[in-house]
């Protein structure tokens, strides 16, 4: 399975491309914003596509040609304004979904926020609410398609070394999870068709990643 990783130069994306390239069943294509980011992925033997998420659907669709799955790991980051949140986390996500449809790619994995319910938007601090709202509507857009989607809702992301043990379920207690383990879960999700049509929350736990994904 060839996988287009959107937001590949992010911390989850880099881990994910590394895990995919180490897999016997998966192959990565890294979508990056500029050519200067390419060397990391080329050293892993991964193909790259230089595309900015603020470009049009057809440009993103061209990057998705010939792949079997798309993973959306991109994010505007905590230090950008509401404009970038809209342009990347909402519009960028929706354009990527539409690009997958245009390119004939059925499998789509979305990395969302821990809680994207309407209640979460209302309860979020004013500085965080636009991000939650953007993720909410991107998730809803994906669920309204006929794509073979999975939506992953990770807890508070850390840069700790991954342990390879998580808790994954429709609803879990809020907690932390290393970005490295999120990437492990994404890779396991891609290899498990029983995750299609599901969404789940994810935090550090005591269950090995493959077992946790298999139990969903």
From TrEMBL:
Transmembrane segments: none annotated. Residues 7-192 form the NAD(P)-binding domain. Gene3D superfamilies: NAD(P)-binding Rossmann-like Domain. InterPro entries: NAD(P)-bd_dom, NAD(P)-bd_dom_sf. Signal peptide: none annotated. It comes from the Bacteria. Pfam families: NAD_binding_10 (PF13460). This is SDR family oxidoreductase. It comes from Salinibacillus aidingensis.
């Amino acid at each position: 399975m060839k996988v287009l990783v959107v937001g590949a130069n992010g911390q989850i994306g880099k881990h994910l491309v590394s895990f995919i390239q180490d897999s016997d069943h998966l192959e990565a294509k890294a979508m990056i914003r500029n050519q200067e980011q390419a060397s990391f992925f080329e050293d892993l033997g991964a193909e790259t596509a230089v595309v900015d998420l603020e470009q049009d659907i057809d440009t993103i669709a061209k990057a998705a040609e010939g792949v079997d799955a798309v993973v959306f790991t991109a994010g505007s980051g905590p230090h950008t304004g509401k404009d970038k949140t809209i342009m990347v986390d909402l519009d960028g996500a929706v354009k990527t979904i539409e690009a997958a449809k245009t390119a004939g790619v059925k499998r789509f994995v979305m990395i969302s926020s821990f809680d994207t319910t309407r209640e979460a938007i209302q309860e979020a601090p004013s500085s965080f609410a636009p991000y939650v709202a953007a993720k909410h509507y991107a998730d809803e857009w994906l669920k309204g398609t006929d794509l073979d989607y999975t939506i992953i809702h990770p807890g508070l992301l850390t840069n700790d070394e991954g342990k390879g043990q998580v808790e994954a379920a429709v609803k879990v207690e809020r907690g932390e999870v290393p970005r490295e383990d999120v990437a492990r879960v994404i890779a396991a999700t891609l290899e498990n068709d029983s995750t299609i049509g599901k969404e789940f929350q994810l935090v550090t736990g005591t269950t090995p990643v493959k077992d946790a994904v298999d139990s969903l």
